[in-house]
Amino acid sequence: MKILIVNSYRVDIEQKINSFIETVQKFGSFNVVNDVELFSHVRFIDYDAIVLSGSADLITRGTYSKTYIEFLKYNTIPCLGICYGHQMLAKAFGGEIFSGLNQIGRNETVRIIKNNRLFKDLPPEITVVESHVEHVSHLGLSSAGFEVLANSPSCEVEAIKHIEHCFYGVQFHPERSGIIGETIFRNFFDIAWDKKRCGKNSTRL
Q: Shortest CA distance to 85 belongs to which of 201, 149, 174, 186?
């Protein structure tokens, strides 16, 4: 499997993206590209899956790449957005992002509310690492084409899946959440691989 990691960190990039690399490299080969280098006309047809990193940027302040949004709109490769990447994925399709409680570097119990392969082999409640001050709003999310897969006491939208596309997002950080996070990555890459085998037009996954 060939995986593209989209980096959205602006400072201490090597240190912060390394946790993604350490996990992703267990499942296949990878390359890293900065989000500001992505445009709607850029196609990465050789890749089987895309992972969108977190970031210290705040979407509500407008500090995000507009070309990155356009890329996400036109992308057709299975995609997993993490924290900021999750928020950007929702925003690209019309979701709303709001400021909330400061959840920097804390553990949270996330409740899985909808059965999905992303959480295969995991219990109904999982403890994961959170690190954010913004979150995706539940309001209007279905109109944006997403369904909510998980929530928590601190965040009403902890995980989403696009209804038509193989696009997933998680507000928490699986790359910092040990075996639970590694299981989520494995499940996502299994989904992406099955989609490749079933054909690009398959929406059942």
A: 174
**Mean pLDDT score of the chain:** 91
Q: Are 89 and 167 in contact (CB under 8 A)?
A: yes
Distance CA 109, CA 34 (A): 31
pLDDT digits (tens, 9 = 90+) for 11-54: 888 888 999 999 999 999 999 999 999 986 667 788 999 999 99
- Three-state secondary-structure class, residue 68: helix
Q: Which two tokens stand for residue 49?
A: 């899956």
Question: Does residue 111 register a pLDDT over 50?
Answer: yes
Tell me which residues are annotated as active site. 83, 173, 175
Sign of the torsion formed by the C-alpha atoms of 191, 193, 196 and 200: positive
CB 138 within 8 A of CB 148: yes
Instruction: Give long-range contacts, CB 8 A cutoff, 24+ apart: 103-107.
Output: 103/130, 103/131, 103/132, 103/133, 103/154, 103/155, 104/130, 104/131, 104/132, 104/133, 105/129, 105/130, 105/131, 106/130, 106/131
pTM score, whole prediction = 0.92
How far is 134 from 67, CA to CA, in rounded Å? 21
Question: CATH topology for 2-198?
Answer: Rossmann fold (3.40.50)
